[in-house]
Design goal:
By secondary structure, this protein is α+β, with helices and mostly antiparallel strands. It contains five helices and 19 strands. It has one domain: 4-Layer Sandwich (Double-stranded beta-helix). 36% of the residues are buried.
C-alpha cells in the first residue's frame, strides 16, 4: 500500500513536537498519547492492528495487534484524517526530552528496525510490527531482548529518542560499537550483534556494562546520547538527597556538609 505524502515541520529543542500538514483525505497514524493539537477539519479515529489498515480480516488484525503488545505497545493506534478542504495541521509531541527523527522509508529499503517505544507517528500506509532476534547473545544481552520494533512502508515515519541523535552511515564492512542502551535503530542490511567488553578491570570496574552493541555496515544507524533508562537512573540517584538523606551523601564531608550549608539546622 502506498503511503500518503505528508508535509511536516519540527518545533522546539529539548521537548520537541512535529506539526504535520495534511491535504484533504490524507491520514497520519500515531501512538495513543502522543497527540498534541489539531485543526477543526481533522477527524480522529481509533484503529485496531498495526496501523497499516490493510484489508486482512478480523483475525489478521488481532494477530497484528497482539504483536504490538509483545513490544510493550497498546492494542490500538490512532488515525487522524483531514475531512475538509484546503490544508489542515495536526501535531504530536515527544514524551520526554530528546529529538524527533524523520525517516523517509522509501530511502531505507522500506524498512527500519528500532528500539521499543521509539515510534511516534507516520503517514498512513506504514506498518508498525515486531522484529524477532535470531541471535541468542543479542536477545539475552542486547538491551532490547529478543523482540524489537520494525516499521515498514514507503512514506514518512517519525521516531523519538533521548538527548541528541547521531546518524551514522556505515560503509560495507565498517564496524561500530555502541552502548546497548544508546542504539535507537538501524536499516535492515546492518549486521547487529553484541560483543563482550573484555578485560577484568573493564568488566568489574568499568561501569559501562558487560557488552557493546556491534554494528557492521552497510547501512544507517541512529544513536541517542541519553537513553530514558539512564535519565531515570540519574533522577532516582539524585532524588535521595531530597527524600530522607542529605545532599552531602557521597561527598567526603558527608553529614558535615549538610551542617555547613544549613540543612542540618532545619
Amino acid at each position: 500500500m502506498l503511503s500518503h505524502e505528508i508535509d511536516y515541520r519540527i518545533y522546539g529543542e529539548e521537548m520537541q513536537y512535529v506539526e504535520i500538514e495534511l491535504d484533504p483525505y490524507e491520514t497520519v497514524i500515531a501512538e495513543p498519547g502522543s497527540f498534541l493539537m489539531m485543526q477543526e477539519d481533522i477527524q480522529m479515529k481509533t484503529i485496531f492492528g498495526d496501523g497499516s489498515q490493510k484489508d486482512e480480516g478480523i483475525w489478521g488484525k488481532v494477530f497484528s495487534a497482539s504483536k504490538r503488545v509483545l513490544v510493550g505497545e497498546k492494542l490500538f493506534m490512532t488515525a487522524f484524517t483531514h475531512t475538509g478542504e484546503g490544508k489542515q495541521k495536526v501535531s504530536f509531541a515527544s514524551p520526554y526530552p530528546g529529538k524527533i527523527i524523520p525517516i523517509q522509508l522509501s530511502q531505507t529499503d522500506n524498512k527500519i528496525i528500532c528500539q521499543k517505544d521509539s515510534f511516534l507517528c507516520a503517514a498512513k500506509g506504514a506498518s508498525v510490527g515486531i522484529e524477532f532476534s535470531k541471535k541468542m547473545g543479542r536477545g539475552f544481552f542486547g538491551g532490547e531482548g529478543f523482540i524489537m520494533q520494525k516499521i515498514e512502508g514507503d512514506g514518512l515515519a517519525f521516531l523519538h529518542a533521548g538527548g541528541y541523535i547521531v546518524e551514522k552511515e556505515l560503509e560495507y564492512g565498517e564496524h561500530l560499537r555502541v552502548d546497548t542502551g544508546c542504539l535507537v535503530g538501524f536499516t535492515q542490511d546492518i549486521d547487529y550483534d553484541i560483543t563482550f567488553v573484555g578485560g577484568i578491570k573493564n568488566t568489574v570496574f568499568g561501569g559501562e556494562g558487560l557488552f557493546f552493541a556491534s554494528l557492521v555496515g552497510p547501512g544507517k544507524v541512529w544513536i541517542q546520547t541519553l537513553p530514558i533508562s539512564r535519565l531515570a537512573d540519574r533522577i532516582l540517584s539524585n532524588s535521595k538527597g531530597y527524600f530522607g538523606k542529605g545532599k552531602g551523601e557521597g561527598s567526603i564531608l558527608g553529614g558535615l556538609g549538610d551542617l555547613l550549608d544549613g540543612d542540618g539546622f532545619l
